[in-house]
Design brief:
- 2 copies of one chain form a homodimer.
- Chain A is of the alpha/beta class and 317 residues long.
- Chain A folds into 2 domains: 129 residues, ATPase, nucleotide binding domain (Nucleotidyltransferase, domain 5, 2-Layer Sandwich), CATH 3.30.420.40; 171 residues, Nucleotidyltransferase, domain 5.
- Chain A contains 12 helices and 12 strands.
- In chain A, a hairpin with a 3-residue loop joins strand 8 and strand 9.
- Chains A and B meet through strand 9, helix 9 and helix 11 of A and strand 9, helix 9 and helix 11 of B.
- Chains A, B: Keywords: ATP-binding, Kinase, Nucleotide-binding, Transferase.
- Chains A, B: One of its GO terms (molecular function) is glucokinase activity.
- Chains A, B: This is Glucokinase.
- Chains A, B: One of its GO terms (biological process) is glycolytic process.
Amino acid sequence: MDRKIIGVDLGGTTIKFAILTENGDVQQKWSIETNILDDGAHIVPDIVSSINHHLHLYQMKPEQFIGIGMGSPGTVDRDRGTVTGAYNLNWKDTQEVKKIIEQDTKIKFTIDNDANVAALGEQWKGAGENDTDVAFITLGTGVGGGIVSNGALVHGVGAAGEVGHMNVEPDGYLCTCGNRGCLETYASATGVVRVARDMAEEFSGDSQLKSRLDDGQEITAKTVFDLAKRNDLLAKMVIDRVCHYLGIACANIGNLLNPSFIVIGGGVSAAGAFLLNNIEKYFEKYAFPSVRKTTHLRLAQLGNEAGVVGAASLTLS
Amino acid sequence: MDRKIIGVDLGGTTIKFAILTENGDVQQKWSIETNILDDGAHIVPDIVSSINHHLHLYQMKPEQFIGIGMGSPGTVDRDRGTVTGAYNLNWKDTQEVKKIIEQDTKIKFTIDNDANVAALGEQWKGAGENDTDVAFITLGTGVGGGIVSNGALVHGVGAAGEVGHMNVEPDGYLCTCGNRGCLETYASATGVVRVARDMAEEFSGDSQLKSRLDDGQEITAKTVFDLAKRNDLLAKMVIDRVCHYLGIACANIGNLLNPSFIVIGGGVSAAGAFLLNNIEKYFEKYAFPSVRKTTHLRLAQLGNEAGVVGAASLTLS
């Protein structure tokens, strides 16, 4: 009988679940709200009861499962199966996630951080085409990433994949990490808006983006991309600057690791081919000639499903 | 009976050989000159006869060896065991290195490029303390590198480890690779001199370095480091700039891979702790806080032996 896998993607607003085959095909999926009340004390019990409820519903037994894999925010101790300091879950203290889930579901449990898990998802079943060498960058509220080399996630001493904190501008914008000029300060959703506000001050031509900002209207990264696509001069300058930094970061990832694919996902990547083409322009400029030919930039393909799929794949290694 | 390994480090002027134990202890070593005449046609036969001669001398048989590992310049095809375009060896066409060496020594042969092999040597028996995650940067005529993650060399599609071509200055110096602002253009032996000449032009204070350059005296990277150590103002400014770029590159390697150690070797690293401290200053500034605490910069320890030791280790994986 074919055995199945459960993938769990734990986020600050929802917890996504899926039951997958060993080949990574999603057979069932569902989600619940994340209840972060009481220092997040309900989260792990909610995960357990949701899994047990669905196994009952589908008339499945723990023995039918290879394991449960989960992606989590915060600092993950993979060996001990604990999570510390996941502030969007209100988890300040260390949570014994693995211990409780294994005890209460009778299924083997594996955990890694959410950016790594999304990277694995795209590498396995998405834009990474199951290649052994894939880098993943997610452009959202922050900028995160994950690196797969020789078919395995790179953890280093623990914090590998901090793509958002690669320096792209010495003495650039101040970052939440305390450093200056991190990629995240320019290329996250808030970073794009920051660049827009900054460049608007010096800009004196004709621009809708400029008028909206001067008007005090709320703008988002999407506003900037949409206006740039409609040839707004300032918006185009902003996107060009953001993509310049992303292009340098991708080139440096390429020069260092020469992966088959650098996959770009996250909310900001909804800007699609327009974003990708602008990044590629600078990637081509800064990548080593043989890297330019062999490392390909791609948009993520799995969207919200990358998390559960990647989480499931944790159980297979 | 303990089996042995042969490590070969093929360079443009000498070929170094060593016989090592499985634990990487060097038991015998010797070297021969590299004869690059006749399109480098003598090189592989010279390697074969030198190995066979020494086995005869030490009364050893092919069966006593796990294998021969070799580091080579040029583009190495590891699966086929061939080398293409190693211009300092006069090898323009593809050379069937593995085929000939295995046939004529009766010992299994493994090959990788010289920077990767030196990285493996330092990772295994040098400053890397046999850790699973080590990055290596060599500062010589050029700047090269090698990355070990999860205990294995990262090759990517083939060209991983091009640390010297990481971009550190958009629109900076033109590099031999055709791009601008590659680390190599500032931090190689010739790069340091280039920075010195450039900064001397704008410099108007009191400086021996400036006088020597204005005098038309020949200067090297060593001259610049030596003068900086003796507090020459311009020399200190040059080293500060070079180490700023090296610090950014090391920080970005750290942010991406979070290795236990980033090991700095090659001729320029003879400048020792003075070099390391100046790089660390900028590494601290640009590395992500947790990376700053867990990734340590170190000077290489094996010197010229890194090549044969790392080459030998190729036979063990």
